[in-house]
Amino acid sequence: MNMEKILNEFDEAYNKAFNAGDAKACAAFFTEDVMLLPPGEPMTRGRKAFEDTYRSRIDENTGGTHTNELIDYGVEGDMAYQVGSYAIEDTDPPEKGKFVNILKRQNDGSWKVKVSIFNSDLP
User: Fold this and answer.
1) Which of 41, 78, 82, 91 is the S-S candidate for 64 at Cβ 3.0 to 4.6 Å?
2) How far apart are CA 8 and CA 21, in angstroms?
3) Three-state SS for 110?
4) CA distance readout (Å), 95 to 2, 30, 61, 80, 119
5) DSSP conformational letter for 3
6) CATH number of the domain encompassing residue 67
7) Residue 122: what pLDDT?
């Protein structure tokens, strides 16, 4: 298993969904019971809450281009972590920050994010 390749492909597909403005497609990369810890907002739990949060984020960044950069990762059995940076360019205001995802291997062998925390580098 090449986890670096898996995470880079994961991010590429996720960015494509975000850039298409599809919150439901973004949510498909996360477990049904996902815990999301967004900046400046309360923690949410569950894919429906994730979709609501991301629909709002996507609306705020309409026309922007979301990218991720993998900085570090690790795997232990059916759990993995990912540390990265993100940016949303070509939007006003632009957004830039960092994130940590905890992923869980699913029964079909795919990986989905169970916990995601991110925050902005910008004031």
Assistant:
1) 91
2) 20
3) coil
4) 30, 22, 9, 26, 10
5) H
6) 3.10.450.50
7) 86
User: What is the per-residue DSSP string for 6-72?
Assistant: HHHHHHHHHHHHHHTT-HHHHHTTEEEEEEEE-TTS--EESHHHHHHHHHHHHHHTTT-EEEEEEEE
Return the closest-CA partner of residue 82 out of 45, 43, 51, 113: 113
Count of structural domains within the chain: 1
CA distance 52 to 57: 9
- Residue in this structure with the two tokens 């298993």, named with its chain if needed: 1
Give SS3 for 92. coil
In whole angstroms, give the CA distance from residue 90 to residue 62: 9
Give the phi and the psi of residue 78 in degrees, each rounded to 5.
-95, 10
